[in-house]
Amino acid sequence: MAMLINGQPGEQISALDRGLAYGDGIYRTMEIRAGQPRLWAWQYRRLVADARRLRLPLPDEALLLDEIGQLADGLEQGVAKIVLTRGVGARGYAMPADCKATRMVSVTAWAGYPPERARDGVHVRWCDTRLACQPLLAGIKHLNRLENVLARSEWSDPDIHEGLMLDTRGLLVEATMSNVYLVSGQQIITPKLDQNGVQGMLRDWLFVHARQLGYQLEEAEIIPARLLQAEQVFLSNSLIGLWPVASIDGQALPQQHACCARLQALLALQR
Amino acid sequence: MAMLINGQPGEQISALDRGLAYGDGIYRTMEIRAGQPRLWAWQYRRLVADARRLRLPLPDEALLLDEIGQLADGLEQGVAKIVLTRGVGARGYAMPADCKATRMVSVTAWAGYPPERARDGVHVRWCDTRLACQPLLAGIKHLNRLENVLARSEWSDPDIHEGLMLDTRGLLVEATMSNVYLVSGQQIITPKLDQNGVQGMLRDWLFVHARQLGYQLEEAEIIPARLLQAEQVFLSNSLIGLWPVASIDGQALPQQHACCARLQALLALQR
């Protein structure tokens, strides 16, 4: 792994950083292909949106791209992560008047997930951990991720690839690290993320590109029973791409639909 | 400020620490008097409870006390902070099987808040930021504190000393950095913290000691209107001690009750 912290090579940050003290920051994880971050425009758009909501200063796009490029130079396949925090602050929750943000950019070589997951589908489970409803933080990829940590700690079976999460109202939100979609005919629905959840950049991408293939993607309030009625369920995140769901808690799901495979093919064309 | 990280002098931690990545950890802040942490037994009891709930390994009590003692040696008055995280982990939410926790202990000289706040009372406001309902994290002093950061960012007027917070149901929970109590006769009520909020160690202390002065402290579901009906409202936290509330959003509160002053006097006798 190679890392730049505020542009300087290093792997350490101040123990007084608000990112550690309060989770006061945001992050993004992205695929590296041939030395470049994939789907960068979509990633940066999300960083802009999240930084604005938390009133975090956002570094220049060119600077971030340059730092990723430096670290990923010559790397065929890998993962980059950007973490932005509100920097070192005095004791107390108040945001520093003169905020010196901390910027961490790291790149790691990584060969990707086993390709059969995208082809044959993944096995998922329902998590008992439910997501709270907090409109002020909903959708943001912030550093307050204890709910996801607790949900992911519910299983250790390596043959279970993801865990679906409901919120405290009993509505489907997401999987621990991915967004969720239900296909019926030409319609795709995905949970509204106005109360909780993380808005992944591939979710944004799908809203624009599903239409190209004749699908209509819409947000909906989704109760768990609807998953078993769907013709196909699939997941998205920037590192997994799109994974069809083969089973939920051991119950096989129908794979009557080519939707996920068609979207995968379209996604594969993107840089 | 002086700091030990896993027992070694230093002020930097790995940028890969899960405390930063996910807020996967807990903390406590405490007063130092004459080189020793005040009310240590109460602080440690809370650390034990919080670590157990998040399945974090907890360092030995004697080790923590020794490290605080080293840093606070010769210091008449100050603040100590303990931060415990799940340490450095691989990418992903899953808890590392072989968790090497990170332990940060720091001590800073600090003369305390202006004493007139404890004597004459403080001016508080209602925050618009509401706390989500999440039983799995309720009461824990964990590192996911964005809600408090957002609430504290609602005001910058130095004459407003604290902000009261409701949850998404409209019930009183706490103030941004303190617990809240309403006095009526010999009865004191404080919000239940089964859905959200931070269980301060002074709150535990009050449950045991209010009784000594003939008060009955109980948890309750408290709607905002009840604050204006109380004979006294006061706040607790380990650094402020106990502060009576003089006004809420400019509306003066009655100070007909000696309750807070009597509890302050009892607290002053504690080591």
Structure description:
The structure is a homodimer of 271-residue chains. Chain A is of the alpha+beta class and 271 residues long. Chain A folds into 2 domains: 2-109, 2-Layer Sandwich (D-amino Acid Aminotransferase, Chain A, domain 1); 116-268, Alpha-Beta Barrel (D-amino Acid Aminotransferase, Chain A, domain 2). Chain A is 25% helix and 31% strand. Chain A contains 8 helices and 16 strands. In chain A, the strands form 2 sheets. In chain A, strands 8, 9, 10, 11, 12, 13, 14, 15 and 16 form a 9-stranded mixed β-sheet that branches. In chain A, β14 and β15 (241-248) form a beta hairpin. In chain A, α2 (40-53) packs across α6 (201-209). Chain A is globular, with a radius of gyration of 19 Å. The mean pLDDT of chain A is 96. Chains A and B meet through β3, α1, β6, β7 and α5 of A and β3, α1, β6, β7 and α5 of B.
Compact overview of the structure:
The structure is a homodimer of 271-residue chains. Chain A has 271 residues and is of the alpha+beta class. Helices cover 25% and strands 31% of the residues of chain A.
Q: What is the highest CATH level, the class of the largest domain in chain A?
A: Alpha Beta
> Biggest interface pair, residues each?
A-B, 56 and 57 residues
Average pLDDT number of chain A: 96
The percentage of residues in β strands of chain A lies in 25-35%
Distance between the termini of chain A: 23 Å
Q: State the CATH topology of the largest domain in chain A.
A: D-amino Acid Aminotransferase, Chain A, domain 2
- Number of helical runs of chain A? 8
Per CATH, the superfamily of the largest domain in chain A is: D-amino Acid Aminotransferase, subunit A, domain 2
Q: Write the CATH architecture name of the largest domain in chain A.
A: Alpha-Beta Barrel
Biggest β-sheet description of chain A = 9 strands, mixed
What would you call the shape of chain A?
Answer: globular
**Structural class category of chain A:** alpha+beta
**Quaternary structure state of the chains depicted:** homodimer
| Cα-based radius of gyration of chain A, to the nearest Å | 19 Å
Number of strands of chain A: 16
The arrangement of helices and strands of chain A along the chain is: EEEHEEHHEEHEHEEEEHEHEEEH
Give the helix level of chain A as a range of percent: 10-25%
The structural domain count of chain A equals 2
Low-confidence stretches of chain A: none
